[in-house]
Amino acid sequence: MIIQTLSTFPHMYDSVMGESMMKRAQENGIISFEAFDLRDWTYDRHRTTDDYPYGGGAGLVMKCEPVFEAVEDILGFGGASEGGQQRLDGNSARVIFLTPSGRTFDDSYACELAQSSRLLFVCGHYEGMDERVYTLATDMVSLGDYVLTSGELASMVIIDAVVRKLPGVLGAENGADDESFAHGLLEYPQYTRPADFRGMEVPAVLLSGHHANIETWRRQMSLKRTAELRPDLIQQAYDCGDLSSNDILYLKSLSAEP
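-> structure tokens emitted (258 positions)
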């Protein structure tokens, strides 16, 4: 997968993309990564990427000209048609803008993006971006109902969530299969040695070696944790038909507990 970013602070990615899983994914040829500096598509002495908003107001707005030129150059177009509609054909790229008005990011969206061959993240800063740049977007994404200083931070979260979905990235072959949200529920509790730490003991079933019982316990703990902390996910799983009859019986037994 090709992952590219366009921003005014490309060096923000140095530590995140140069350590741990992200570094290994690049060394193993699973992803290639490049951070572009939007200022490389400016032509004034101060390399200006922002200006005051029409109509007045606080803050500065990122200009549309350098964003259009940069995206067209990165994707291999000498120029786009009016409205930017020529921007992607033949490149199989998804151009992702980070914005509070975008689709809320979640695990299913991460899985969707992980099927792509190329992602280009366009990251805003300051007060926002000229509205016309969004004609370049294939995706507009929000992390949630809050505001960050920059789109770089949001893109790092999305890149991490997407890359760990790619085959060969995690150490375990099926490492992402049982993680929280992978099946619509929170993950079951995990333990490692020692079996007894300050009086807190690992559940006996995990020491039993009985794999069927362990799987049953893990499923039940996943259901219990989700019911307690994210009942909305339980309702979604029920509505989607993802709960077995045994799951439903177990959840009913929880509600019957004093």
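The chain has eight helices and ten strands.
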